[in-house]
């Protein structure tokens, strides 16, 4: 009789053990899935951010080319003279110049070549424009130089193009003030490597700019 009574007990205990083992296996499976999810989500986010950054970089426009910049061979030596000069380039890009530099800034009238060349020797970029350039384009040029301390902006008769940008031994001709190469030229040549006297003053000279 005892053996008959013990058999159901052993069977019940075995069933409970099987159920516990099954529940443990199910819990372990769920834990593994949670760990995989925790790893996968950050990975997807990182990959997504990286893909976004790559896409932004890939979609950036190429910087404007300055291949059209003309270069010249004027000596870097100081050549000061009080005499008026007959420069071969319009506007000039180097050569003998007045001992007094032109104060950098915006001018509404033409400025003396000889003083402006001295400013370029100090690292200034001289932006000249045709006197009949539309007012909106002149305003655009004024905006371009608003935050620059080593630029001269002035009208100029007889230019080979509506707008000409000049630095010592370098020059770029453009057709309008919206040309993206204007900003690129300023970034490259204001106090650029071509400057004979980098850091020299562009103030306390001659001339009274309006801005």
Describe this structure in words.
This protein is of the alpha/beta class and 211 residues long. The protein has 2 domains: 1-60; 70-189, Glutaredoxin (3-Layer(aba) Sandwich). The protein contains 4 helices and 6 strands; from the N terminus they run αββαβαβββα. It has a 6-stranded mixed sheet. Strand 3, helix 3 (135-145) and strand 4 (151-155) form a beta-alpha-beta unit. The longest helix has 57 residues, at 2-58. The N and C termini lie far apart (116 Å). Mean pLDDT is 85; it is low at 1-5.
The overall number of domains is 2
Could you please say which CATH topology of the largest domain applies here? Glutaredoxin
Oligomer: single chain
Number of strands: 6
CATH architecture of the largest domain: 3-Layer(aba) Sandwich
- Shape from CA axes? rod-shaped
Provide a quick synopsis of the model:
The chain has 211 residues and is an alpha/beta fold.
Summarize the helices and strands and which ones pair or pack.
Layout: H1 2-58, E1 70-71, E2 105-106, H2 113-121, E3 125-129, H3 135-145, E4 151-155, E5 163-167, E6 170-174, H4 181-189
Parallel strand pairs: 2-4, 3-4
Antiparallel strand pairs: 1-6, 3-5, 5-6
